[in-house]
Amino acid sequence: MSLRHTLVVACALACATTVSACGGSSEQEAAGLTADAAAFDGLDQAVVEEVLENPDAVGKIEDEASSSAAASMAQGITINFVVCRRVAADYRTWVTTGAVPTLAALPEPTRPQQPSYADWQRMHDDLAALYASGDPAQVRGFLTGESSCGHWIPAEPGDVSGPTVEDVVGEIG
């Protein structure tokens, strides 16, 4: 075998190894979690895939110290994307029509991961109280600010470079 042929084969093998090691498959993952992981059973798969493609979300998931903590974080972030966008839509309706919306039920994964699901149950109760206050400004507070869901979640699914939920809420007033 010629040196040139050997180099071509070696390069091809190196490229194939690099592609497979760097996620050459079309399936996204974070901390070993893929869209078909048990933590995501019962959740909207389009949102799950969006979370696994979102650099901020992936960073938060991969920062977890254990696989169970990563699964809990991933499930919690997926629920966060759903709830944050629903609440933003409710806020828009509330301030444009004056009618207090009904808070949608919390997404229910088939296999709730703790502590994130228990945290979300508490937050959902807190949101219900904000809605019951009759003051849309209280709901706005949930959507805006440094530690809010709206600060980093894209307003449009998958558009990580576009406006966040917070940006859109700011435009509403």
Automatic annotation (TrEMBL):
<keyword id="KW-0732">Signal</keyword>
<protein>
    <recommendedName>
        <fullName>Lipoprotein</fullName>
    </recommendedName>
</protein>
<feature type="signal peptide">
    <location>
        <begin position="1"/>
        <end position="21"/>
    </location>
</feature>
